[in-house]
Batch of 2 targets.
Target 1
Amino acid sequence: MQVRKDGVAAGGLTLSMREFEYDLGEDFDTADITADVAAAVAASGVHTGTATVFIPGATGAVTCLEYEPGVIADFRRAIERLAPRDDHYDHNVRMDDGNGHSHVRAGLLGPSMAVPVVGGRLTLGTWQQIVLVNFDNRPRRRRVAVQIVGV
Amino acid sequence: MQVRKDGVAAGGLTLSMREFEYDLGEDFDTADITADVAAAVAASGVHTGTATVFIPGATGAVTCLEYEPGVIADFRRAIERLAPRDDHYDHNVRMDDGNGHSHVRAGLLGPSMAVPVVGGRLTLGTWQQIVLVNFDNRPRRRRVAVQIVGV
Amino acid sequence: MQVRKDGVAAGGLTLSMREFEYDLGEDFDTADITADVAAAVAASGVHTGTATVFIPGATGAVTCLEYEPGVIADFRRAIERLAPRDDHYDHNVRMDDGNGHSHVRAGLLGPSMAVPVVGGRLTLGTWQQIVLVNFDNRPRRRRVAVQIVGV
């Protein structure tokens, strides 16, 4: 769901910011946000430039995956091995939110990605989708900021 | 090998896109693409700005490493521990391409990187190279999109 | 500590580069660099755009984490599992600097991040900080390049 748009132009350059929100479940839920990012690029009118995708919040992340259930399940298992939910986390001793594993997972994956725009389109491969991940241990309405710079 | 170039200018700004291709072997083969990215920056004439490097395709990735055989072998072993080839992958049950591990590895590493350009040069450290990785389980001609924005 | 600033303007666009340095200890020491990146954005005068953060050097990295001691300790343990210091590293056989684990860790995390700027502010979440990590096996003065593009 698009929740915000903003744009400016200067000397032929366009900067366009769109913000989307997605309701995701707890402990590794995902959304394929490719269509929304592509729509933001189309709406910006930018032909040549770069789209930056950023996830505000310390328990969310973004990456690219083939968005089919097998890959998503496989990726989830790999992430769970990296930072198992039931390990000891100092964060859980200091805070009472119990999401130490969520923070570690998000930090390993990272919150940002940049995709070139050429001919008005993202330069993604055929089977390559932009995937938002909620690592938090509770359902979250996650925001996605998409910033497009170009001409 | 450079396969495409495209550029526009607006109000003093330059946007330059170059695309390169590399023939890589199966299951973790790498290429040091630093010289090509640097050449793209030089050819763009951009003095101050940002170079975005993006790998189209769901089984490729980019990162920075010291490009010497020891580090590359060490990095390969770490990646193989993260997502062993012989584990169970749901993707391999659903599809017949057998590259479930390739998808997980690429998703963990990520397809993009952004490097500032200052004084017409990438702000890389002395021993820091931009490295393309093919994780697919078959040889691939991998594309690299380099988008330079600046003045 | 800010060590360098540089900026240009073209057709209403601003490009601003700031470089910071941080003295960090060996084998996983961290710095919260959020305030410095935010100050660089404020000083640039950019209202809408993108801030790219890049760590020159093959044994440093940047990510986002909630910067509290529990999360930092948890993240350190996860990283140490990914590439234990005492494993065999080919790099350590070929070179005499003994930091094979540092190279692998930095390559897994990556050297760059891009954060949108909206209303003159980084679009970070409340508990989300930009964190520099020194993975090297000796104390390092680490540089951070911050490139801001926008209007």
Target 2
Amino acid sequence: MAYKENYPSVLLSEAVEAISSLPGVGRRSALRLALHLLKQPAENVHHFTEAINHLRDDVCYCRRCRMISDSELCAICADHSRDQRTICVVESVRDVMSIEATGQYHGVYHVLGGIISPIAGVGPSDLTIRELAERVNTLEAPSEAEVILALSGDVEGETTAFYIYRQIEASGIKVSTLARGLGFGDDLEYADALTLGRSLTNRQIFQP
Amino acid sequence: MAYKENYPSVLLSEAVEAISSLPGVGRRSALRLALHLLKQPAENVHHFTEAINHLRDDVCYCRRCRMISDSELCAICADHSRDQRTICVVESVRDVMSIEATGQYHGVYHVLGGIISPIAGVGPSDLTIRELAERVNTLEAPSEAEVILALSGDVEGETTAFYIYRQIEASGIKVSTLARGLGFGDDLEYADALTLGRSLTNRQIFQP
């Protein structure tokens, strides 16, 4: 912006600076948001900032699955109506929420807190893979339990899936991954070759 | 969102609630931002919230033009190299920044802090129109000074312009408004009838 270095107030430019540090928020929208907040009653703005500080400072994670939680054990891990012997391994908190939103999964989760990515400098030790292995090893009759690797379909995801598999295969636990293929309602014409190829390889018996 | 009432943590849902109260930020992006902030070092998040509180609590406004300012008199009102007898009346702080960005205006400003809008319940007394009138009346030889009404071209803008004109015309000050017409590079074909009509009415002598 032309007046990037030319804000009418240091306070404003610092607020814009801070807000535009958020992902996907440019200087223009940061300015719009700052001026919006400026118009709000002080108590609303304080409520806004307190909610954020409160989240950052006081959030805790489930000791078992590492999901964000208000208690030591998250609602899902504490729920005995859920299959505690089917563990869905995901990259992030958000993935858990997405899967919960489907309402079609009744097992439990394990949140890795990231994905193995040499480029981003994220190694296995930065993730909760060791904790997952311990979890698997403490299961009774692991051969009758299952770990679902619900990771993204890219190289990082596959690398991470393979690494995790190596860590837990000795336990004899069943390890599965998400089905890959055309999305519901996807147009064949626009599907990338890899996806299309996989959905051919993993084709299923037609059940009318 | 399916899990709108179903966040894994009260802290998270409260933060999402707060963030999605921002204009143009839906629950989905609010969640994305909340989880982003959660990943940042605590000091960064505190810096972020402090910058916002600091802006809201400590910002002040120029006593003359009501622009956001760090001092009692803003940089523009304090700048004697600027024409203090040409006052550009705008709706908001943002308009001042936009006009400053053009680098083509060398007068001063008056920020109304809004626009007359019966629907939004904003009346003349909610704006700094009285202060503007006082400012005009304290000018020496107002007939040689000028007020530029740089307000939006919609009904509210025109209503406000007319109201202000009525308040200051007695002073004999010259009152002008922004030229209305086709934007630079606009295609005639796509201009709305009102704009096109105005740019015909206000046509100017061609100066090659």
